[in-house]
């Protein structure tokens, strides 16, 4: 808290330092401590193909707060981004995901790729690709075990540097997914310039896909666009049978959502991996 002898300046600070700003500062300090105390943990949400096979999972960070319980990322990722804490936080999520994947694999479970959300600040680091490479190497994992989820706006904003980093990641063999596809920039030119492997349809389009004709058309267009460019298409936020049936009919490749599984703590994700081994899916059915 800045206290000035100058009366005018002090008044300025006390007016501007409103409740919201103070709460943010407190949250930032709390988050900094949480990183040190290892209170940030990864949950994993399974992803299935249309035969019901477990084909991937998304790492989703949670804050296991000693007093407030489990806090979702929407409540602290924005503050992490504004404060720069997103760099150590994002690195922690990535390395935890690779450590978990490696442990499961060593326990004899199948190597199912993990998708990790990446923030703009992480992606803008000049040594980002090298950091990813060394993290994979440290855990003895092939690059194909990792997918990075970026957003449209990140690719547009970072420009030439983004192309360079993406090139390095692609050369490495890490797959790139565009998250929340359809909610960002409408310029599609970048899709053919960048080595993108997967489009992830935003859940806002999936929600009413079988009842709102605009969403029906948008989802169909995204699936066709992705397939025309040789990409795989994932639908997120699938909650109902009706949504799933529509998406399957339109040819979506992979589904993720509460209909199949919520994001799971590490131990429960391990159970899901075991179940995938014990009960291999039969064609045309879902879990
Ligand atoms: P996202 O990457 O688009 O993740 C999907 C969000 O949808 C997750 O929310 C997930 O729990 C939720 N979800 C999954 N299935 C369903 C469903 O069927 N219905 C509904 N309504 N929601 C579903 P979550 O875990 O709260 O994460 C929110 C956002 O926070 C993520 O959106 C992502 O942008 C960000 N985030 C999460 N973990 C990380 C991280 O490690 N790093 C960064 N930079 N961002 C993260
Ligand atoms: Mg995501
Ligand atoms: Mg998403
Ligand atoms: Mg989303």
Automatic annotation (TrEMBL):
<protein>
    <submittedName>
        <fullName>Diguanylate cyclase (GGDEF)-like protein/PAS domain S-box-containing protein</fullName>
    </submittedName>
</protein>
<feature type="domain" description="EAL">
    <location>
        <begin position="24"/>
        <end position="277"/>
    </location>
</feature>
């Amino acid at each position: 808290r800045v206290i000035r002898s100058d009366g005018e300046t002090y008044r300025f600070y006390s007016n501007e330092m409103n409740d919201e700003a103070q709460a943010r500062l407190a949250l930032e300090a709390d988050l900094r401590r949480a990183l040190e105390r290892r209170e940030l943990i990864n949950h994993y949400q399974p992803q299935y193909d249309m035969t019901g096979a477990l084909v991937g999972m998304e790492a989703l960070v949670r804050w296991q707060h000693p007093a407030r319980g489990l806090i979702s990322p929407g409540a602290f990722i924005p503050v992490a981004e504004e404060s720069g804490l997103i760099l150590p936080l994002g690195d922690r999520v990535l390395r935890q995901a690779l450590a978990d994947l490696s442990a499961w694999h060593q326990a004899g479970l199948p190597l199912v790729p993990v998708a990790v959300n990446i923030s703009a600040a992480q992606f803008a680091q000049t040594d980002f690709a090298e950091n990813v490479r060394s993290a994979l190497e440290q855990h003895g994992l092939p690059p194909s075990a990792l997918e990075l989820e970026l957003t449209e706006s990140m690719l547009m904003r970072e420009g030439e540097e983004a192309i360079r980093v993406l090139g390095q990641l692609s050369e490495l063999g890490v797959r790139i997914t565009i998250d929340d596809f359809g909610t960002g920039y409408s310029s599609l030119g970048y899709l053919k310039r960048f080595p993108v492997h997967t489009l992830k349809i935003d859940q806002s389009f999936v929600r009413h896909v079988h009842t709102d004709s605009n969403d029906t058309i948008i989802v169909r267009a995204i699936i066709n666009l992705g397939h025309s460019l040789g990409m795989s298409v994932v639908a997120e936020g699938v909650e109902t049978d009706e949504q799933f049936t529509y998406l399957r009919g339109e040819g979506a490749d992979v589904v993720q959502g509460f209909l199949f599984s919520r994001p799971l703590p590490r131990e429960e994700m391990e159970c899901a991996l075991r179940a995938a081994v014990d009960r291999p899916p039969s064609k045309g059915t879902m879990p």
